[in-house]
Specification:
With 508 residues, this protein is an alpha/beta fold. It folds into two domains: 216 residues; 246 residues, 4-Layer Sandwich (Nitrilase/N-carbamoyl-D-aminoacid amidohydrolase). The protein has 14 helices and twelve strands. Helix 9 links the parallel strand 1 and strand 2. The longest helix has 30 residues.
């Protein structure tokens, strides 16, 4: 066995290739079965190396993490191409960010190495336990970035996802990683009986979950739709991101948006994406009241993403307006995108001419309130852009709203895989919360998703159009919406118990 790992080609090659393979399991590729190869190979090769130095274990995980993230969040660089000032930062963005995120997997293997894993069944549970805990940490520390968890590889197997309403994304991630590792037992130093029992038990659980998911979906799909007392028109424009910078006349954009929404005489609420109006904010929108009034009627309401100034502060907001542009309610974004909507350590960086990526030099401010929007008795929970990616922290009072609205500007992703990755978070949130989701995206995927994560209507990022909703199936309260991520910690306790019992048995 080669002990000088820096000269061992496979030490670098194996985790790097495993990271690349796992990327292909994520949206938009969705080859989830590749994780049954990459994860066992990642574990088995690590155990065969018998690494004793902590740094080597950390580096092994870092290589895997870097390959994984550099191949699936390269789209970050696209947001730096809009203005010339940011283009020199592209090489840093596509290396430093994947290295930072990859370091979480380095920490995972560092902790894993301290527990001296062997080719025993307990190592599967130990790997899944620590790995999913690190993923939870990544989703919460420094504001959190729970992007591309391994469990998202199963986003198109809707039957398998129905368990999310009970256990949530992080617990599901823990279970999924466990399943992906099961093939490694074939080369473990255990009896044939133990191998057969492990594989058989895993297969029984997988099949049982698929049957359970099918039953849930069949029952849900047999329920009749309830009519709404108005029409919801979810508008998906495809207006170039450069409108922020080229002086496009807002009147022309408003006209395009209204015509695309097919305004008619019915009671309706029109939903438009994040920051869709160039160069104007909520304080200035009254200047365009005549344009709105020529298209929208008294029985129309408008929900739109727009910038809002309040004293010296600036907010990325979602507002509910009537056709005269009177503000009925307003929501200011809670979770801001670092560097995109605010510049960390702004006072220091602005000395060197740096600013946030979105238009303007002043960073947005965040709010701590998330009030519902009420239109004709229909209540909407507002979420802007990537606020949809946070599991277990949307809203605590389940029975107080009917739909989740998620508005977004996905032009920052370009034509990359980031568009699909961002969209599929909505599928997970709908099942967790048991709520229908209306997603309005500019240059992204707009959709109507039911409370079981089924995509009822969809407009691709390459298209523009409008989705009309006149009825829906009300979801039922979920276990996860009541308890949130506390469930994940119950799973951790269960896994620790299983590992403890397996360790005792392995010593006998």
């Amino acid at each position: 066995m080669i002990r000088n790992y820096s000269k061992n080609f496979n030490f670098f090659f194996v985790p790097f290739v495993c990271g690349l393979i796992s990327t292909l399991s994520l949206p938009p590729y969705n080859f989830f079965y590749l994780n049954f190869i990459s994860f066992p190979f990642l574990l088995l090769f690590y155990l065969s190396l018998k690494i004793k130095k902590s740094f080597s274990s950390f580096f092994y995980g870092l290589i895997f993490g870097f390959a994984y993230f550099v191949s699936n969040i390269y789209w970050i660089a696209n947001s730096l191409t809009v203005e010339e000032i940011f283009k020199p930062l592209i090489p840093l963005a596509i290396t430093i960010i994947p290295l930072f995120l990859g370091s979480f997997y380095g920490i995972f293997f560092l902790i894993f190495s301290y527990l001296k894993p062997k080719k025993k069944i307990s190592s599967i549970f130990l790997f899944a336990l620590i790995f999913s805990s690190i993923e939870y940490l990544r989703g919460h520390i420094f504001g959190g970035f729970p992007w591309n968890l391994i469990s998202f590889s199963l986003v198109e197997v809707n039957q398998f996802l129905q368990i999310l309403s009970y256990i949530g994304t992080y617990s599901f991630n823990l279970v999924v990683v466990t399943f992906f590792l099961v093939p490694s037992v074939i080369l473990f130093e255990v009896t044939t009986k133990a191998k057969l029992l492990t594989v058989s038990f895993a297969l029984i659980l997988i099949i049982s979950n698929l049957i359970f998911g099918n039953l849930v979906l069949n029952k849900h799909n047999n329920i009749l739709n309830s009519p709404l007392n108005l029409i919801i028109k979810n508008v998906s424009p495809k207006i170039d991101l450069k409108r922020f910078f080229d002086g496009t006349d807002p009147s022309l954009v408003i006209k395009d948006l209204a015509e695309l929404g097919n305004t008619d005489n019915r009671d309706a609420v029109y939903i438009y994406p994040e920051g869709i109006l160039p160069s104007i904010n909520l304080n200035e929108i009254q200047d365009y009241s005549s344009v709105f009034d020529s298209f929208f009627k008294d029985n129309h309401k408008i929900i739109i993403g727009i910038t809002r100034y309040k004293e010296a502060k600036i907010f990325n907001s979602m507002v509910l307006l009537d056709n005269k542009l009177k503000v009925i309610s307003v929501y200011d974004k809670n979770k801001l995108v670092p560097f995109g909507e605010y510049l960390p350590f702004e006072n220091f960086f602005k000395k060197y001419g740096l600013k946030k990526i979105t238009q303007g030099y002043q960073s947005f401010n965040s709010s701590s309130k998330r009030d519902l929007m009420n239109v004709n008795g229909i209540r909407f929970l507002p979420l802007i852009c990537y606020e949809i990616i946070y599991s277990g922290s949307l809203y605590k009072n389940y029975d107080n709203y009917d739909f989740i609205i998620n508005i977004s500007e996905d032009g920052w992703f370009g034509m990359s895989v980031g568009i699909d990755q961002h969209f599929f978070h909505s599928v997970f949130r709908s099942i967790e919360e048991g709520k229908n989701i209306i997603r309005s995206a500019n240059n992204g995927i707009s959709a109507y998703i039911d409370s079981k994560g089924q995509i009822i209507k969809k407009i691709e990022s390459t298209q523009k159009g409008v989705i009309e909703i006149d009825s829906y199936k009300k979801g039922s309260k979920t276990i996860f919406s009541s308890f949130g991520n506390k469930i994940f910690f119950y799973f951790l306790i269960f896994y620790i118990t299983v590992i403890f019992l397996l360790k005792i048995r392995e010593r006998q």
